[in-house]
Amino acid sequence: xxxxxxxxxxxxxxxxxxxxxxxxxxxxxxxxxxxxxxxxxxxxxxxxxxxxxxxxxxxxxxxxxxxxxxxxxxxxxxxxxxxxxxxxxxxxxxxxxxxxxxxxxxxxxxxxxxxxxxxxxxxxxxxxxxxxxxxxxxxxxxxxxxxxxxxxxxxxxxxxxxxxxxxxxxxxxxxxxxxxxxxxxxxxxxxxxxxxxxxxxxxxxxxxxxxxxxxxxxxxxxxxxxxxxxxxxxxxxxxxxxxxxxxxx
Length: 249
Fold this sequence. Notes:
The radius of gyration is 23 Å and the shape is elongated. The protein folds into two domains: 2-48 and 74-182, no CATH class; 189-245, Membrane-bound Lytic Murein Transglycosylase D, Chain A (Roll). It is built from six helices and 13 strands. Helix content is 22%, strand content 36%. It is of the alpha+beta class.
């Protein structure tokens, strides 16, 4: 009787209130494919943005901060640390009082080894040889919806069973991209239309597929930009370059 009451109380407490973070693989455009639930919501995440500044210098005049110009904007960077643990439950909560449906929401990876969960993530984040670009992903949690490419990921195993099997894992994840709401706003701007030829500056160190993603929303179209600019080997592009971005006919 008490167990049923505890179960109903737990359902009432958590139903519709605990939003779980999720990591999706993006199939095309903004369409989401495979999903990997995150066992524990991150305690914090960071989104950083920056611009490349240049100075307009006048002969015979002192430097003036008001003469600074934004030469180009960089992609935003999302960083978070995710934890996976099969040795303990959420804050020691008695999972016996939870319904099976609620368990799947609160503890989506319960019973799985951290090595299996982290391997699933690693498979999602592998470099795509066909497109010469990493897989696009979306991190969704509540109002946050961040889409981009995994710039780095690092997995640390921090607790082990007697036979050496990892019980806890920590994944440090960095995604380079932008919030989907901002991306959608940019896509409807007329100057961003892929239906007319224009020129863009490739920032030093950026690969062609990043420009293709920004202009066409498809990293595989880096070949179109390469052909239009006589680039035979995109890996040998060095330094900032002014490139022609062909229209889509």
